[in-house]
Design goal:
The chain has 145 residues and is an all-alpha fold. It has 2 domains: 17-57; 61-145, Orthogonal Bundle (Arc Repressor Mutant, subunit A), CATH 1.10.10.10. It has helices at 2-11, 22-56, 62-80, 84-94, 100-107, 111-128, 131-144. Helix 2 packs across helix 7 (131-144) and helix 4 (84-94) packs across helix 6 (111-128). The longest helix has 35 residues, at 22-56. The radius of gyration is 19 Å and the shape is elongated. The two termini are 26 Å apart. Belongs to the sigma-70 factor family. ECF subfamily.
C-alpha cells in the first residue's frame, strides 16, 4: 500500500500542491488508501456471498447443467461481441479484478473513460441478460481458475 502511495506521489509530483506538512499529507493519503481498501473488501465479500448463494442453487439434473453451461457460453459470446477496447476494459475490470485507476494506467486512458466504458459494457450486457445470467459467468470463471 505504501509503495502504491509513493508511486502515485511520484507520478503526480508535477501537479501536487500540498498546503500542509508532508507528514500530514502522507498520513491522510494512507488513511484514504486504507478506507478504499476496506470498501473494495466489502464489495468483494458481497460478491463472494452472491457466489455462495449461487452455488447453493446449483442445478440438480443434467438438463439444468446443460442450460447453465449454454447460458454461460451465450454470455461469453456477448462479451466477445463488445467493441474491442470496451471488451478489454471490461475483462480487466471483471475478470482480472483491476481497479479503474490500474486499468487507466495500464491502457494510458483517463479514469473517466474507463468508468464510461465499463458502464456501457454493463448496460449492453444487462439489456440482454439478467443478473443471474451474469452471475453464472462469474461462477464459471471461478471454476476455471
Amino acid at each position: 500500500m505504501l509503495q502504491d502511495l509513493f508511486t502515485t506521489l511520484w507520478e503526480k509530483r508535477q501537479a501536487l500542491d500540498i498546503h500542509c506538512s508532508l507528514r500530514s499529507y502522507l498520513y491522510q493519503s494512507v488513511r484514504h488508501k486504507i478506507i478504499d481498501l476496506y470498501r473494495k473488501d466489502a464489495t468483494y465479500r458481497k460478491y463472494l456471498q452472491q457466489l455462495i448463494e449461487h452455488f447453493d442453487a446449483q442445478p440438480h439434473n443434467i438438463s439444468e447443467t446443460y442450460d447453465y453451461k449454454a447460458k454461460a457460453t451465450e454470455v461469453f459470446e456477448a462479451i466477445n461481441r463488445l467493441p474491442e477496447k470496451m471488451k478489454e476494459i471490461f475483462m480487466l475490470s471483471r475478470f482480472e479484478n483491476l481497479s479503474i485507476e490500474q486499468i487507466a494506467s495500464r491502457l494510458e486512458l483517463s479514469q473517466q473513460t474507463v468508468k464510461n466504458q465499463i458502464s456501457k459494457a454493463l448496460k449492453i450486457l444487462r439489456t440482454h441478460y439478467t443478473q443471474t445470467d451474469l452471475l453464472t459467468v462469474a461462477v464459471v470463471l471461478t471454476l476455471l481458475h
